[in-house]
Amino acid sequence: MDNRQEISVLNDLLHITNDRIEGFEKVEGKVWEMYPDVKDEYDHMISQSKIMKNELINLITEKKGVPEDSSSIAGAIHRTWIDIKNSFTMGNLVESTLENVVFGEKAAIETYENALGYGNLSEKSNKIVSEQLRNLKSSYSQFKKIEEYKKKE
Asked: HEC string of the chain?
């Protein structure tokens, strides 16, 4: 197995994880004050993302790689789009925020599934990335349910 390929895949996942962290930090505090049940899960996702980030950095350095500890260009564009969209949102900011969380989690899941599908990961990396994917799917499922519930209100 070529370490360079594995390091590249792990760095892609690190970018996505940094995108998640930056995206979560942009959420309006007032939204979560209105819905404390959502805030607790969101805080858990932020903590979980930071753990995932550290795990990825450790895997990359174990492979003698250099962690590219930044967000992706696509993530930066998406966050800018969210800022613009939210500045024009006259309706429900909570609904819009939840839609953005669900969209971001779905994109992260697809990236993780692709990373696992390439077969470029060692057994240890595969195990850690698979566990991170399970966490992403759990978060996605929870926020999808909350989003659907809020739309019915």
From this structure: CCHHHHHHHHHHHHHHHHHHHHHHHCCCHHHHHHCHHHHHHHHHHHHHHHHHHHHHHHHHHHCCCCCCCCCCHHHHHHHHHHHHHHHHCCCCHHHHHHHHHHHHHHHHHHHHHHHHHHCCCCHHHHHHHHHHHHHHHHHHHHHHHHHHHHHHC
Inter-residue contact 125 to 136 (CB < 8 Å): no
| Tokens 């049940």 sit on residue | 37
Task: Tell me which residue has tokens 């789009």.
Answer: 81
pLDDT by residue (tens digit) across 101-129?
Answer: 778 888 899 999 999 998 889 999 999 99
Cβ count within 10 A of residue 125: 24
Cβ(66)–Cβ(24) under 8 Å?
no
The model's pTM is 0.80
For residue 29, which amino acid is it? G
